[in-house]
Task: structure prediction
Amino acid sequence: MCVIGEWTVRPELDRLEKGAETRHIVPRATDMLVYMAERQGQLVTNEELLDAFWRGAISGDNAVHKTVAGLRRALGDDPSQPSYIQTHPKRGYRLIAPARPAAAAPRTAPVATSHIVGVLPFVALEDGNTELHSFALGLAEELVSWLGEAGLYRCSQERSPLASQHRTGIPLHWDRK
Result:
């Protein structure tokens, strides 16, 4: 992206912007305008433009002339009193408007779309049942491990705000048959 005179050139969208005004230009014209902006103030010959943008296709200076004419229309430039593109007859063109890279918009990091799960501890309802207590602890650990390894969730055990509010955990009743 660059700024040429009052216009911001958006090559990825093939358009020019000035305030709320937007003008679309053909991709080859966009590329040619950026090429000239990179050489701002220098004469760019017809042959150089043909080589860069028509790469061996059977074209003459007329193809370059038509593209420059389209750029002038889009920029609102007057060839008899140019403020953007100056013609050097039988030689080429010079971008005379000030050109500079556009200030890059601050890039924001993409928002991660992950799911977070807090696993509350299970507690045995039967006091003194060590087998059930061990099973309850192991179940919570296994659940955290399984959900995390699946890659679908970020898991924490007993670290969520809910876990600190409910220290008693999730009741687990083991009915032996």
